[in-house]
Specification:
This protein has 287 residues and is α/β, with parallel strands linked by helices. It has a single domain, classed as TIM Barrel (Alpha-Beta Barrel). Helix content is 40%, strand content 18%. The strands form 3 sheets. The protein has an 8-stranded parallel β-barrel with strand order 2-3-4-5-6-7-8-11, surrounded by 6 helices. Strands 1-12 form a two-stranded antiparallel sheet. A two-stranded antiparallel ribbon has the order 9-10. Strand 5, helix 4 and strand 6 form a beta-alpha-beta unit. Helix 3 runs parallel beside helix 4, helix 4 packs parallel to helix 5 and helix 7 packs across helix 10. The protein is globular, with a radius of gyration of 18 Å. The two termini are 12 Å apart.
Length: 287
């Protein structure tokens, strides 16, 4: 059987580069020696849908030991601000890697955000995107004020291994509104394993759906208030969510994706399979 890459139905740009490969992270926790060849296989199977391979700076040496002589591996490197410059230099010096993004975790306040922005401005080569993780505290807006106008994205944590790591629909909608009001684009991390909001039967955790987030972002960009976005985040009807995005014109697709750039997932296959089931991607997903 000839395997055809899934493609978006009538809107090929909607999901391109949407799925950052975070296979190394929980709950997947793939070994590096498994995750690297698996990423290359994902790119062969799903093409432009697959974003960069996400790797902590602390594991760059381990990553180098798993590289082959094929095309340079596109990576997004996670590093605290004090370690960022050294991590960037290390990736740039490795011809088998291609630095496409960096992510700064653990930014707690505006002072730390200003430090991160300063390091990013000094260390990043042209064309490399940056994301700074927002705190889920009263300091959120002060951090966003620092990021506004810099080109840096806000990284939003949407889940994790404990229930308290999942923001409510109201909190997430408020944060999305705060970001977009300042024209700060967002990427998400953790918890978005499925297209549609659902309860994990094993943990009982209520997971946000990445399609919910995409539609909520579109609503905010259209001028709707945060409570309206929260109502989209609470929807668990996948067909209704699919109908909400199906047929978006190219300018609407571009606007939504410029605002919600990507999310990290430990399994690229799961979200792609969801989109096929909802009729938003065509072609069979190979087993």
């Amino acid at each position: 059987m000839v395997l055809v890459r899934p493609r978006a139905v009538g809107m090929s740009a909607l999901f391109d580069g949407f799925f950052d490969d975070a296979a190394l992270f929980p709950p997947g926790d793939a070994p590096m020696a498994v995750a690297v060849p698996a990423h290359r296989d994902l790119v062969v199977r799903f093409g432009a849908l697959v974003g960069p391979f996400v790797v902590p700076a602390s594991r760059l040496a381990e990553l180098a030991g798993c590289l082959d002589d094929g095309d340079a591996l596109p990576v997004s490197v996670i590093a605290p601000a004090p370690e960022l410059a050294a991590a960037v230099d290390r990736v740039v010096a490795e011809p088998r890697l291609a630095l496409v993004a960096v992510e700064v975790p653990g930014v707690l306040d505006d002072a730390a955000a200003a430090e991160a922005v300063g390091v990013l401005g000094a260390a990043l080569p042209g064309g490399v995107t940056a994301a700074v993780e927002l705190p889920r505290t009263a300091a959120r807006d002060a951090v966003l004020d620092v990021l506004a106008g810099t080109g840096a994205r806000a990284k939003l944590r949407t889940g994790g291994l404990r229930a308290e790591l999942f923001p409510s629909a109201a909190e997430l909608a408020s944060t999305l509104h705060a970001c977009l009001d300042r024209q700060v684009a967002v990427k998400c991390t953790a918890g978005l394993h499925a297209a549609v909001r659902h309860t994990d039967p094993a943990t009982g955790f209520e997971h946000h759906g990445f399609l919910n987030v995409l539609v909520a972002v579109d609503a905010l960009l259209a001028g709707e208030p945060a409570p309206a976005a929260a109502s989209w985040l609470r929807r668990d009807d996948g067909l209704a969510l699919a109908a909400a995005v199906l047929g978006w014109p190219a300018d609407r697709v571009a606007r939504a994706r410029a605002a919600f750039t990507s999310f990290g997932t430990c399994s690229v296959l799961e979200p792609v399979t969801d989109l096929v089931a909802l009729g938003l991607l065509t072609a069979p997903v190979p087993a």
